Amino acid sequence: MAQARDYILADGQTDSHLDKMGKAPCSMPLSAGDKSDKFACLKQKIAAEQGKEIGYLATNIPCFDQALSGGLAYQHVHLITTAYGDAAATGFILALLRAQIQQRPNAPIIWCSPRFSSQYGHLCAEGMLAMGINPGQIIFIHDSHPARLLSAFEEALQTTGIAGVVAEYGLLAEKSDQWLRWAQRLRRAARAGDNPGFLLGPSATSTGFETSWSVASLSAQKARLQSQKDYLKDWQQDWRPRWSVCLTKSRKGYLAEADIYYCPISGRLSLLNDIAAEPPGQASFALPAAASGADFEADFKDGRQPVSYLSSDLSSCAS
Amino acid sequence: MAAESLVYHGRDASTGRRKSAREYLYLYLPDLPLRQACIEKGWQMEGAIGLYSRHQHTDRLVYLSLLAGKAGLSAGMGVADAKARLPDICLAEVRPEQDRLCLEKLARWAWRYSPRTGIDETGYGIWIDMTGTSHLYGGIEQVIADIYRRLSCLNISVYCAAAPYYSAARALAYYHPLARKGVVLLSSRHVLMQILSEFPLSVLWLEEGVVQALSQAGLRRIGHLQPLSYTQLAIRFGPELVQKWAMLSGNRDDTPTAIGSVPALWVSHSWPEPLAGLESWQQMTDQMIKEIADMLLKAEMAASCFELGWQTSDGTIGRLYFNLSRPGRRRDILSRLMAGAAEHIDAEFGLDYSWLQAHKLAAELPETGWLGTDPSSLQSQQIDHVLDILAARLGTDKVQRVTHHSCWQINDSMVYQPLADAHADKSWDMAVPAYLTAPRPLRLFEPAEPVYVVALLPDHPPAMLRWRRKNWQIIRATGPERIGPRWWDADQKGIKTRDYYRVETGDGRRLWVYREGLPERGETAEWFVHGCFA
């Protein structure tokens, strides 16, 4: 069986000759004009069936937007998974929601999560502030039971005028029958509203969701290889979030992966390769040599200045 | 009974009118927890009964019946000792929630005397604000007599006192020797203070430590506090004593919160045949929602709290409360809010009587249709309704907003508050660019997770750490940011100063780690992971 995965590379070229169903293309291909007519007709039919147009939340990463035909679709639920003890997925969702807030400035975000999560930790308001999100704009639904959280998520999905709804499902995904039932319920609920819904948690079955993503922090070694030579000398002082994001499943059929970074000042997601090409004003976000924290802590310290420690400073002990 | 009680009405000599403006009546019900336990377990009140609660890993007696008291048992004694002394004693655990429910029922029963009644949150009693209503019953003495007559039929012992303010009425009911027969001490402040001055300091309901400190200073009665100034007392014994003393002496407002007031609008149905079955209860709810919505529309009012109540054929009364974040009256909203209400009705033999009441009324003009209405306000209304539904389903404390508190310790810098309590003035300041502020993690581990570290020097960041059963190589770090405890806060006395570092592991994770204890001060250093960055 041929694998039905078409990876779109960061430069936009398709990586496979297989179609969406995993079959080889037809031996008598339609001409370009016929194809476009047929697609237009099909699109019209689908739009008529659905009755309304669905909006998209663009990621600003070409390979993802291309694979998703414009971005993450509203009125659908997107599954975003990450490892325990890693805030990369939370950061990725907040970065997406920041773009959404620019479109809907006064709309609140509803975040359903347990108040205390031992594995992931709980959301820190000042950390959100550092990501460029106003914590006052977020309404938290705190409950320790994941099923109650998902029922709140379902209710919030059906509402219009919200910037986004996020739920943390915890260990519920391990019960496969319940998980599939919830996936169906949430898909139906999302159709009633006009918001993008995000499910955040550990690795889970992606059946029933519009897209499924796997997000992880990008290792420094990989980041160093990817970023250009000019940037190399500065990377050690740049603490901007960097993630390795993989679109592992999409109902549209195309998959993609990219290493990206997020700029909290501009609120934009960009490819890691573009990091050196950024204007100097934005690149100066890289904190000065006196380290991230020189200004704020001078009052509280006993005359010591905070410093940056690099691997060479630390390794002599580790080895 | 009231004839035997102590009655003192001070009257103004010139006008003949009573000087006092308010009349508070306090009913102290000392036997209530025991009586509840007896009803539940089928015991006799005359027998040896003890109620216990768990205190510092030991079950200790809290309430005792007369017989148990005569047998030499006392409150605070361990359950094992009590069993050894009196093997036949009937023991049960204290159930404060049940007692509170019982008190609430009694407070509702007391609506027959006044629309403002409430329960004592710290003790076993209810209060009735008789201001302006006692004359309807022929005076406060007649009210007390009526209360005694009604409650004696139910075998509830009650201590009753009336005073011009709440704290005094409560103190009299608890400590006055004649409270068993009813005490009325209205209007003459001088006489009231004379009587209160003889009471012990426990009348102020202070913490154990404060009472001990007062006792060591030779202050054992209320009268001992009278010559001392508030400033002197506050400096030596803290502000709590001064607050409570000011309340007892009537110099500070102590108006308690009343339980749900009488509704202005309600619909009720008396059913000829008991209503049984989920479907019929659903229909009943829908019908009452329609009626109350029409009623509110006619009155040009909107309500933000609704009470759905019912009485079953066996006499049990049940109530459900639904809150709206803003006053509303639309039928569809109410229907959605109360969608699952019928499932909560537990009536095996059906309902005889049901009602729907609208509380917290506010004026609202009639709606003229959707045309021209601002779409953003419509959307915000819809969001409010969803939040109301979630609050009704999960509880009001589950729907929260995070507010800012000016504090350099991260745990205290943010407070999660229920949506209704979160104030807009404590919103977050977005004016400062993120890169100028201290690095703060996106996820916080609470409590912080202890880790083993390898560091080059005692005041260096870790080169390697063992966290969650895994070794993590650190490739870069910045810091430290020193965060000390609040030195003026007594609660933080044992907390050491921390040095926070932002570190990056080999696989790209960024952690916020701290070292507790400063090596330069000779303290033992311990390492913790407190959060992770995006």
Q: Mind explaining what this structure looks like?
A:
The complex is a heterodimer of chains A (319) and B (534). The model of chain A is unreliable at 1-27 and 279-304 (pLDDT under 50). Chain A has helices spanning 32-50, 62-67, 88-103, 125-130, 146-157, 176-192, 220-226, 229-232, 280-283, 311-318; strands at 6-8, 56-57, 72-73, 77-81, 109-113, 122-123, 138-142, 164-168, 197-201, 211-217, 242-250, 254-263, 268-271, 307-310. In chain A, strand 12 (254-263) and strand 13 (268-271) form a beta hairpin. Chain A is globular and about 65 Å long. Chain A has a domain at 50-218 and 242-258: 3-Layer(aba) Sandwich (Rossmann fold). Chain A is built from ten helices and 14 strands. Chain A has 319 residues and is an alpha/beta fold. In chain A, helix 5 (146-157) packs parallel to helix 6. The longest helix of chain A is centred in the first third of the chain and has 19 residues, at 32-50. Chain B is an alpha+beta fold. Chain B folds into six domains: 6-30 and 124-188, no CATH class; 34-94, MutS, DNA mismatch repair protein, domain I; 201-248, no CATH class; 265-372, Dna Ligase, domain 1 (2-Layer Sandwich); 402-434, no CATH class; 439-533, no CATH class. Chain B has helices at residues 32-41, 66-70, 79-85, 96-109, 140-153, 166-175, 189-196, 208-216, 222-225, 230-237, 239-248, 278-299, 331-337, 375-394, 410-413, and strands spanning 6-9, 24-28, 49-55, 58-64, 90-93, 117-119, 125-129, 159-163, 183-186, 265-275, 301-312, 317-328, 351-363, 399-404, 414-418, 443-455, 462-467, 470-483, 498-505, 510-516, 526-533. Mean pLDDT of chain B is 83; it is low at 1-5 and 10-19. The interface between A and B is large, with 88 and 74 residues.
